[in-house]
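Q: Could you fold this chain for me?
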Amino acid sequence: MQSSATPPVPDAPLTVTDWAVTALDGSPVPAGAAGRARFALAPGGTAGGSLGCNRFSAPVAVEGATVTFGPVTSTRMACEGPAGEVERAMTRLFGAGPLTWKVQGRTLTLTAPDGRTLAAEAGSAAE
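A: Sure. Below is the predicted structure, expressed as structure tokens.
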């Protein structure tokens, strides 16, 4: 007997996916910053994108279920309001040490050792 259920969505790959940050510590990204914080991890060991206001790049190492961001280098525009809050939260999270990562369907969750989290939705493959 065949099931009429929709097949599960395959998990988006951790690398080469454009990730749009949707939530930090379980709270949705504020409306004034929604869609602005994005990043991608390249297979060659780098990450880059936007922290919500400034562009950034960082070395990154993926080992099993953990990802570790090296020092974040970013542009230096003054960022206030929701975009600045998102930027500061992402910078702290990326610097928190090895992050546990999990992809379910098109959603990535990064979890810091202290329990802080970042959720992101997959966009298109990074160019």
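A (continued): The mean pLDDT is 90.
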